[in-house]
Every structure is written in structure tokens, then in C-alpha cells.
Amino acid sequence: MTDEMSTRKINSFQKQKNKQEMQRMVVSFALMIIFTLIAFALVMLEVPSTYVIPIILLLAFVQVGFQFFYFMHLKDKGHEVPSQIIYGGVFITVMVALTFTVITWW
Amino acid sequence: MGMTSAQKRGFGATLWDWLTTVDHKKIGILYMAGGGFFFLMGGLEAVIIRIQLMSPENNFISAGLYNEMITMHGTTMIFLAAMPILLGLMNFIMPLQIGARDVAFPFLNSLGFWLFLFGGVLLNLSWFTGAPDAGWTNYAPLSIQSPGHGIDFYIMGLQLSGAGTLMGGINFIVTIVLMRAPGMTYMRMPLFTWTTFVASILILFAFPALTVGLFLMMFDRMFGSAFFDAALGGNAVIWQHLFWIFGHPEVYILILPVFGVFSEVFPTFAKKRLFGYTAMVFATFLIAFLGFMVWAHHMFTVGLGPVANSIFAVATMAIAVPTGIKIFNWLFTLWGGSIKINSAMLWALAFIPSFTIGGMTGVMLASAVADYQYHDTYFVIGHFHYVIVGGTVFGILSGLHYWWPKMFGKYLHEGLGQLSFWTFFVGFHLTFFIQHFLGLMGMPRRYWVFLENQGLDTGNLISSIGAFFMSFGVIVFLINIILTTIKGKKAPRDAWGSGRTLEWSISSPPVHYNYKQLPLVRGLDPLWIEKMEGNKNMTPAEPVDEIHMPNGSILPLIITIGMTIASYGFIYQTGNKLWLIAVYSGMAIALISMLTRSLKDDHGHHIPKEELERIGD
Amino acid sequence: MSHDHSIDPKNMPKDPSKATTEGKHKFMGLWIFLGGETVLFACLFGTYLALRNSNAGGPTTQELYGLGLVFLMTVLLLTSSLTSVYAIYHMKNNDFKKMQLWMGITALLGIGFLACEIYEFAHYIHGYGFTFRSSAFGSAFYALVGFHGGHVAFGLSWIITLMVRNAKRGLDLYNAPKFNTFALYWHFIDVVWVFIFTVVYLMGMVS
Ligand code: HEM
Ligand SMILES: [Cu+2]
User: Fold this and answer.
1) In which pathway does it act (chain B) (predicted)?
2) In a 3-state reduction of DSSP, which class is residue B83?
């Protein structure tokens, strides 16, 4: 069987759904690029650090959310356990980052 | 199948079978045998320590050797004895309890075991050239300054065995999430499976911190980086953080599985269902969660400041709450039960007061201000031996007596079991209870000698005598194993007659595919339910059909050998660059065998229906 | 159970990477593994955050970093994430050739990223004398960014092996999970990079 033929044969409803999903992916990609641009621009424009650091961290979190939920399908069904595990990892990450910035030097 | 047919096959074939096995039961036995061996090593080291401290200013071993002895004792007991034996029990029992035929990644399971074993062997090879001597906590800058290669063996040995443990953890999580038998919902899982699950999650999140810590230590010692080097702006406290971010969850990795063991043993021998099942599950998660937020209680005296110390002190004390829930649930399980006392039950009963004392001293230590007095004294030694020996070791021994008939098809001898219990139990309290007071009197930990006439002489002597009692108990246990292996009483499938969980529904020892037909689970304590309704055994959830099983493979062993050679090379390449040959050839061996694994399709094999029907059962 | 892993296009499973038991296991196993990886990078980030100002008299973050190259690297890696999504899209449509094509593009973008990183490191070492050994900041920087680079390199050898291995045999239910797990891993590398460019480079230019 050649690939061309098999593509044509697969259920057109499914194909349609796959396509819609792909469109959503492209939109999230565009948003990710925009977030990146904003973050870089804020730093290059030398916005005061009290504002810029929380903002770029927030942008990073949102962007990573897109990666996880859309690109990696964490929002879909059947991803309950993976998402719990990732939340756990994120929780520990935040805690570790916080302690290492705050209580390593005294 | 199993043992008997293996015996008929001749030594070479049997050996090959064990080297290539991917059967979770055999890997479980290998873990327990390996862990048992290292337990004896660690025990020997402990006895040597206690002989040295038996009398003031003793000269049994030199100061340097003493440091190596305490370091290797702690490291061996935690990483190479307690944890592997627990992993062995989990490996053997957990898949049976959820009604699975194997774990999710059998190949990885075997790789994990070999990595643990070779990591342990590598670490112990250091005895020939100088063992690590900076304590099991390996604090920088002491560990950075330590001459010779001892610390390098610590780094590489733990890196290897840690990688193996991480694989085991991931494997168990996936197994429990995806491979439960029909009807086995999460809230019908036995407590031992639950604690295996939660301990695996702890492994997953804790071990990477150790991995990073060891990498940084390796870079500093071997490649001249400056993570812990104050002269170049480094900071030794980073090691302490990384070590304890791993280290505190690690102590819960050691205790949670045995909480599971006790939650199986008590209901079986009290003939009552576990009191407060849901609370037990919830408490397990709560302990795990809190266990990640308390690591700095090991660092109270570092100078993190009063705010940080207070936060960590309160979080630490909070752990006592879910732990208390568990203790009371076990007591209520026993309450009014028709209790049968045997060795498994004795270990479990002895655990409750012993561990509670350890928890109580834990709360004392958690009080940051008071800890300035206790820290690095024998009080801490007393504390953690009450939780680790009185908790983990008692739990392991309880579990071994309990599941021995399931794993090997023969009972351990009851009289010998009780003899080893009583001697060990008495020895344990003799050794460690007095240490609290020695600590309060000011005896520091990790000191080679103590001085005469400071009120420490008698206490230390008592402590050492206790160690001999414990050794005696361990030897009796070994004799018990040997004797019963030769001529032990055969065990039926429901070895205690009051089994509640799925593992008691299949033959002892189980056939290599565990379940001819997967069982249908109708509730918590599924076998008990069937027995109460007058059924002899579980109702199958599927017709007899061919069974898909994974193929054995020698590759995990070869990969591990390659990595061990490379690790050895890493240790010595700092002195002589020719050792880089070992690094590269070891890595090449490992990579080529990994490549072989991924390029060669391995679909496993099928046990045909006809064969299953012929065997019966 | 069938012993045959080939795909019947008329009965195409919704997600061929999760149609077999092994596939489901691989999928779950990789996710769990990523949970552990999160902590691994958390610790490296923590170490970096603690040591980023310990330059021992060497160049500071502001003197060292250049945002132009970092932006280019970011675009390369983000795009490679999208191209791997395209590859999986074609996998779900059982279009093996297009999947291979997009995976190939993903790998090329990854190689581009890695080349930039090597250039960057060489630049720091030769231009500024900023090395792994020169200060605690140097150690922490190379450890964090280098671990990430090592993950990229590993991912590249993974996907190239997969593509070469399966070029002739086409897509089946046995190798579909392998491609899918690679894609997940690759996205995760991107996630880590997002934090690296934010925490290391952007925050390094600010403070
Ligand atoms: C109520 C529960 C517990 C509390 C509040 C607690 C508290 C503490 C504290 C505060 C320390 C540090 C003492 C110091 O160094 O000054 C400590 C040490 C230790 N604890 Fe616990 N602990 C508890 C349970 C456990 C358990 C269940 C285990 C193991 C199974 C354990 C194992 C250890 C070990 C090994 C150390 C010594 C580490 C070292 O410095 O080598 N603890 N504990
Ligand atoms: Cu602790």
C-alpha cells in the first residue's frame, strides 16, 4: 500500500478533526512567538526591573502553558495523570527556585 | 514452573535465566538478595563502629578508617540495603496485588536492578583504595577537600544506583496507573500498592535533585568547576539544599512502603478490614506532600535566618499529624480483632511503639531553637535509628515473614523467627534508647573517640552490647532462611488462611505469568469478598486465551557493565588521562547495546492457549 | 490479540501512537519521566539563580549576553516545536512521507539551534575568557545551558535514529509510539528553553 492511497482512505471525519486541531496549534504558535517578542522588546526597551521581571516571568508561564496544553495535549482527555505529575513538578520547581534565590546567601 | 524447573536445567542455564530475566518476581528476588547482601555489609560496618565506641579513647580502628566506616555504613544502609529491599518487595508484590502479569517496562526494570547492583559494587570497591569519608551526607567543602578517590566512588556509585532507582519509580507509577485488573479501581487498591505508588512519586521528584547534586560535586572534584568553591564565588550551602531536597523525601521513600506492609499485616492477622482505609490513603499523600516542604529542618544551624527556620519548623511538625492518623488507624484495626501472633505480626506490633518514639523525638528536633542543642549529637542518631530501624527495618522483616510463603512457596520457621525477633528487638532498644541521653549529655556524632569520665562510658558500653544482640538476631534470621529453604513447610495459595488481597488467590510461588486469567475485582479486599460469599477463589474476568509476555534480555546487564567501566574511568582520569580509554570504551559498550535494543524489534512472545489449558490451575 | 502491528487504513485508530498496550505504556512513561526532568532542571535553575552574580571579577551577565543570538535560537527552537506538531498531525493521518519530512525539518532546526549554542559558548570562552572554571557563575551557567544543550543533542540523535530505522518500513503501530514520545520530549526541551531565555538571558540583561 502506498502512503498516498492510505491517506485518502482514512475516515474523512477524523481527518477534518485533525485539521481543525492543527489550525489551533498554529494559532498557539503565533501567540507564543508574540509573547516572545513582547518579552524581548520589554527588556530591550529597558523597562524598570520591578515591572519587567514579573511580566516576562508571567509571559514565560503562559507560553509554557500553550506548549503543555496544546502542543503536548495536556488539556485533552486521558491526560489526567500526566497533568497531575507536571503540576507536582511545577510546584517543586517554584519552591526550589524561591529558596535558592532567597535563603542560599545570608 | 519457577524454581523447580530451573533446578532441573543445570547451572549454566539457570544462571543465564537470572542474568537475562525480565520477570518482576525474579527481579524482586534479585533486589532483595542484593539488598540483603549490602545489609550484611552495612551491619558489619555498624558493629565495627560500635566496637570502636565500646570504651573511651579506644584504638580498635584509626580515625581515618572510622570516618570511612560511618560514611559507608550510612550510605550502604540507605541506598544499597533498605531501599533496594523495599524495591524488591514492591517489585514482587505490587503487580500481584493489582492483578497484573508484569510491570509496564520489564526491560527497564531489569536495567534498574543491574544499575543498583553495580553502583553498589562500585561504591564498595572503594574499600581497596580508600573509601569515602565525608559522611553519608557528603557535605561540601569537606567532600571537596577530601584527598584520594573515596568521594569520587561515592559520586559515581550513587549516580549509577540512583539512575536505577529512578527507572524503578517511573516503572511502578506507570504499572499502577495502567495495568490494574478489571474492577481494580484506585480506591480498591491495597494499601501496599498505594504506598508503592506514592513512594514512587517521591522517587520521581526527589532523585533528580540528588542527580544534580552529584553532578555538581563531580564537576567540582573532577573538572575544576566552582559550584562549592567560596574562592570563586561558589556556595557550599547549595550542596546542602540539593542533598536535603532529595534527602528528606528519601526518608519517606523508606518509611511509606513499610506503612503499606503494616496495613496489610494487621488486617490479615487481626481478621478485620483495615480501619479508615480512605484516611490511610489520604494521609499517605499528605505525608508525601509535606515531606517535600521540610528539607531545611536538616539545616537549622546553617543560619538560614529565623523566618526560614520557623516556616520549616512548623511544616515539619505538621507531618506528625498524618503520621498520627496512621498510628491510630492501625490501633483501631487491631481493636477487637481476633489477633494471631506470629513473627510477621510481632515485627508489626513492635513497630508501633518504636516508631512512635522516633516520631516524638522528630518533633523535638523540629523545634528549631532546641535543635541548636540536639544537632549533630547522638540525639539525632537516636532519632533516626528509631524511625529507620524501628520503622523501615521492622517493616521489611515483617513483610519478609508475611510474604515469604508467597514468594518462595515455603514458610519461614516460626520458632526461629520469634527468637530473632526478640533478640533484635531487645538489642535495638538497648543500642539506641541510651543514645538519646548520650546526645543530651553532649556526645557529638561522627567523633572517633570519646573521653573517659565524662559520664559517657556506661552508656556507650550498653549501646555496643545492644549491637551484638541485633547481630545475633540477624544471624538467626539467616539460619532461618537457609534451614527453611532446605526443608521448609510448603505453603498453599492462601498461606495464612486469612489473606484478603489478590496475591493470595494465586499459587505460591506464582507461575511466571502470574494469572492464567485476570481476576474480576468486586471491591476492596477482593479475595476476602469472594471467601465471604463462599467462593473458593476469584472469578475470572476473561476466558483462557493466549498470554503475551516480554522476552528476557542480556542487554540490561551489558549496558550496566559499560556504564560501570565508564564510571571507573571517570574516577581515575583526573590522575592519568589514559583512563579516558575506559570512559570512552565503557560508554561505547553502553551506547551500542542501547542502540541494539532500539534497532532490533522485540515483540515479546505468546504463551499459547493449549499450553495454559494443559497446565490447569 | 493480534500479533500484527501494521495499520489498516480503513480502520485507522484515532491516535496510532496509543493503539497498542506498549504504546500506552510508552506514552505514560515518558510523561512521568518528564515530571522528573522538571525537578532536574529546577535544581539547575536554582543553582544558577543562586550563583549568577558570583562572577569572581569576570564579566557580568550584562557584559556577556547578547540578545540577538538568543532571539534567533529561540525562534529556531520554537519553530521546531511547531514542525514536530506537523509531523504528528501527518502521523495521525497515516501519511508517513510527510511525517518524515516534517520530522526532518524539526531535526534541521534543532541542529541550527545547537550550532548557535556552540558558537555562543566559543564566543564566551575565546572572547571573554568566560569558562566553566572561571567562576561559580561560569560553572552554573554552563551547567544549566549545557544540560539543556545536551538534551537537544540527545533528542537529535534519537529522532535521526528513528527516521533512519523506519525509513523503509513505514508507519506501523509499533513505531508510531516512538515518534510520538520523541515529539513530547522535544516540546519539553522547548519548555525548558523558554525559561532559560527568560530567567538566564532576559533577566540577566535586566538586573
Ligand atoms: C514525625 C516525623 C519526623 C520528624 C518531625 C523528623 C524531624 C527530623 C529533624 C528535625 C531532623 C534533623 C535533626 C538534626 O540534624 O539536627 C531529623 C533527622 C533525621 N531524620 Fe527525621 N523526622 C521525622 C521522621 C523521620 C522518618 C520517618 C525517618 C526515616 C525513615 C527519618 C530519618 C531521619 C534521618 C536519617 C535523619 C538524620 C539525617 C542526618 O543528618 O544524617 N525521620 N529528623
Ligand atoms: Cu528530614
Assistant:
1) Energy metabolism; oxidative phosphorylation
2) helix
Residues of chain A with Cβ-Cβ distance to B209 below 8 Å are 96
C-facing residues of B in 575-604 (CB < 8 A) are 595, 598-599, 601, 603
* ipTM for the predicted complex: 0.95
Instruction: Find, among A97, B212, B242, B230, the residue nearest to C143 by Cα.
Output: B212
Which has the closest alpha carbon to B447: B4, B32, B53? B53
Integer angstrom CA distances of residue B108 from B92, B96, B528, C34: 15, 19, 34, 16
pLDDT at A10: 66
Please, are residues C42 and A92 in contact by the beta-carbon 8 Å criterion? yes
- Judge: A89–B241 Cβ closer than 8 Å, yes or no: no
Residues B282-321 have pLDDT tens digits of 999 999 999 999 999 999 999 999 999 999 999 999 999 9
Contact between residue C203 and residue A97 where contact means Cβ atoms under 8 Å apart: no
Tell me the pLDDT tens digit for each residue of B105-148.
999 999 999 999 999 999 999 999 999 999 999 999 999 999 99
Q: Which residue is associated with the grid cell 519517606? A: B252
Q: How many DSSP H helices and E strands does chain B contain?
A: 22, 2
Helices (H), chain C: 21-51, 61-64, 67-92, 96-128, 136-166, 176-195, 203-206
**Ligand at shortest distance from the CA of B358:** 1
Structural contact between residues B218 and B126, judged by C-beta atoms closer than 8 angstroms: no
Q: pLDDT category, C207, cuts 50, 70, 90?
A: low
Average pLDDT for B205-234: 97
Q: Whole-number mean pLDDT of chain B?
A: 95
| Other chains touching A, judged by 3 or more CB pairs under 8 Å | B, C
Q: Average pLDDT of B495-518?
A: 95
Q: Which residue has the cell 510523561?
A: C31
Q: Measured between beta carbons, which residues in chain B are less than 8 angstroms from residue C182?
A: none
- What is the distance, to the nearest Å, from the Cα of residue B467 to the centroid of all Cα atoms in its chain? 21
Instruction: Give the fold, CATH level 3, of B2-553.
Output: Cytochrome C Oxidase; Chain A (1.20.210)
AA identity, residue A59: L
Q: Are B269 and B406 in contact (CB under 8 A)?
A: no
pLDDT for residue B3: 44
B602 forms beta bridges with none
Q: How far apart are CA C197 and CA C203, in angstroms?
A: 8
**d(C-alpha B205, C-alpha A93), whole Å:** 10
pLDDT of A50 above 70: yes
Q: Where are the domains of chain B?
A: 2-553
**Distance between CA atoms of residues B218 and B158, nearest Å:** 11
Structural domains of chain C, ranges and CATH numbers in brackets: 15-54+61-206 (1.20.120.80)
- Residue to mutate, B258, B259, B298, B377, ligand 1, most ligand atoms under 8 Å from C-beta: B298
- B398-443 pLDDT per residue, tens: 999 999 999 999 999 999 999 999 999 999 999 999 999 999 999 9
Cβ-Cβ contacts under 8 Å, C43 against chain B: 208-209, 212-213, 242, 245
Residue type at C29? Answer: G
- CA–CA distance, B591 with B556 (Å, rounded to integer): 11
pLDDT at B4: 47
Q: What pLDDT does residue A9 have?
A: 58
Half-sphere exposure of B467 (CA within 13 A, CB side): 21
What is the reported pLDDT for A5? 42
Three-state SS string over B400-451 comes to: HHHHHHHHHCECCCHHHHHHHHHHHHHHHHHHHHHHHHHHHCCCECCCCCCC
Q: How far is CA B383 from CA B78, B366, B375, B388, B468, in A?
A: 15, 11, 11, 9, 20
Tell me what pLDDT residue B5 has.
47
If you measure from the C-alpha of residue B114 to the centroid of ligand 1, how many angstroms do you get, rounded to a whole number? 30
Model pTM?
Answer: 0.95
